[in-house]
Amino acid sequence: MNKPGNSIVLIGFMGAGKSSVGRSLARITGLPRFDTDEMIAIRFGATIHEIFENHGENAFRVAETEALRELRGKQGTIVVAGGGIILSPENRQLVRELGQVVHLSANEETLFRRISRRPTRPLLRTENPRATATALLEVRLPLYREVADVEVDTSLLTHEEVARKILELVES
Ligand code: S3P
């Protein structure tokens, strides 16, 4: 498949393991890692929660597009994308252009168990986080699948196993 970029881009729902797998991939390959949440937090000098609280979700989404545009100038990187990055058509196109797109998936039970360990995500600060997550997942799953070149189910694998599987898939 001909793409302008040759990076490995991890997409998927919150709790899919993108951040940890991204670190494993960077360690194994020696490639630099860029995490859009980290890029945005640095730019604002604030946590993701503070950005949502003080500037609103829309400002965060605009910053996600800017982060992707910035990454377009880099080759051979590991990109960890925030769970909602696939919401806009422009971002979906930008993500595709960066390189091989890997959708990290997991069954809903597993996603929710992992999400519950770190209750910092602004979108899930609702009365019923479980119902919110289910509704978000329903909307997003087709979008992750639309953008991805490959999908890896992380439910039963360690981060290291997921990383090795990704490398097998993208190198074959
Ligand atoms: C979001 C996911 C988060 C972060 C922000 C919004 C989302 O990233 O970008 O809280 O819309 O799903 P993770 O997927 O790394 O948790």
Percentage of β-strand residues: 5-15%
pLDDT < 50 runs, ≥5 residues? none
Biggest sheet descriptor: 5 strands, parallel
* Helical content band: 55-70%
Shape: globular
The number of strands is 5
First CA to last CA: what distance?
A: 12 Å
Query: What small-molecule ligands were found?
Result: shikimate-3-phosphate
Radius of gyration: 15 Å
**Which class best fits the helix and strand makeup?**
alpha/beta
Q: What is the mean predicted local confidence, pLDDT?
A: 95
The number of helical runs is: 8
Series of H and E elements = EHEHHHEHEHHEH
Strand order of the largest sheet: 2-3-1-4-5
Could you characterize the architecture of this molecule?
The protein is an alpha/beta fold and about 170 residues long. It has eight helices and five strands, in the order βαβαααβαβααβα. A five-stranded parallel beta sheet has the order 2-3-1-4-5, with helices on both faces. About 35% of the residues are buried. Shikimate-3-phosphate binds next to helix 1. The site of shikimate-3-phosphate (S3P) has 11 residues, from helix 1.
What would a concise description of this structure say?
This protein is of the alpha/beta class.
Keywords:
single chain; 172 residues; alpha/beta; five-stranded parallel sheet; 8 helices; 5 strands; globular; binds shikimate-3-phosphate
Set down the secondary structure blueprint.
Blueprint: E1 7-11, H1 18-29, E2 33-35, H2 36-44, H3 48-55, H4 57-71, E3 78-80, H5 89-98, E4 99-105, H6 108-117, H7 129-147, E5 150-153, H8 159-171
Parallel strand pairs: 1-3, 1-4, 2-3, 4-5
Helix pairs in contact: 1-8, 2-4, 3-4, 4-5
Bound molecules: shikimate-3-phosphate.
Shikimate-3-phosphate is lined by residues 14, 18-19, 37, 48, 82-84, 121-123.
